[in-house]
Every structure is written in C-alpha cells, then in structure tokens.
Amino acid sequence: MSCGKPHETDCSEVLDHLYEYLDDEMSADACAKFKEHFDECHPCLEKYGLEQAVKKLVKRCCGQDDVPTDLRAKVLSRIELIRAGQVVPVAASEVVAEAGSTAPTGSPAP
Predict the structure, then answer these.
(1) pLDDT tens for residues 10-37?
(2) 46-55, 73-82, 87-96, range with the lowest pLDDT
(3) 90 and 55 in one domain?
(4) If you ran DSSP here, which 8-state letter would residue 8 be given?
(5) Which residues of 49-72 are buried (b: 16+ CB within 10 A; e: fewer)?
(6) Does 108 fall in a domain?
(7) pLDDT > 90: what percent of the chain?
(8) In a domain? residue 90
(9) pTM recorded for the entire structure
C-alpha cells in the first residue's frame, strides 16, 4: 500500500509498526514521524483509521472477557508468522472456531 509518493518514513515501515502506534508503544519521535506520514499519505491514513475502528469495536464487544493464555499465545504467534510472510491469514470463522475450542471448562464457547 502506498500513495506512490516518496516519504521520509516508508509506507511499509508505517504499516509494519501500525499496532505499536495504535497502542502507544512508540517513542515520541517515532509517533511524530508516523503522524507526519499520515498527513502525507492517504492510503496509510485510511489503513490507520480502519485498524483503529476495529480495535475500538473489539474492545467494546470483548473488553470484559478474559482471554485464555494459550489462545493469546497462539494468536500472537500467528501474527508474527503472518508479519514474516510465512503464513497466510486464516478466515475469521476459523479464529472463532479455535477460540471456542479453548474456552475454559464450564464456560460456554463464543
């Protein structure tokens, strides 16, 4: 994804670290670089807006649920593999099915 214009901070770098930006896990200097990039690059700004909206929706819908430790580990591992280009993302229905299979005993699956 790119608008085709050169930027001080490359689009791929912005997209690779988008969740760090969304989660306020970056230095002030890095945040400033990202803000500047979003001001210049409409496609990256759209991606940021979409991911921000998804994050808010997930928090609103699932924010009170405890996530089983093994499911969290599986999801984080999968994200790293996808970022490295080693795995094709799974469909949302597969994620829901896997989440249901790791529900604690006595708890209903989602």
Answers:
(1) 898 999 999 999 999 999 999 999 999 9
(2) 87-96
(3) no
(4) S
(5) eeeeeeeeeeeeeeeeeeeeeebe
(6) no
(7) 37
(8) yes
(9) 0.55
Radius of gyration of the chain from its Cα atoms, rounded to whole angstroms: 17
Residue among 78, 53, 86, 10 at smallest CA distance from 2 = 10
For residue 84, the tally of other CB atoms under 10 A from its CB is 8
CA distance 33 to 104: 43
Residue 73 corresponds to which amino acid?
A
Same structural domain, 14 and 58: yes
Same-domain check for residues 53 and 27:
yes
Give residue 97's domain range. Answer: 66-103
In this structure, the answer to whether residues 2 and 45 fall within a common structural domain is yes
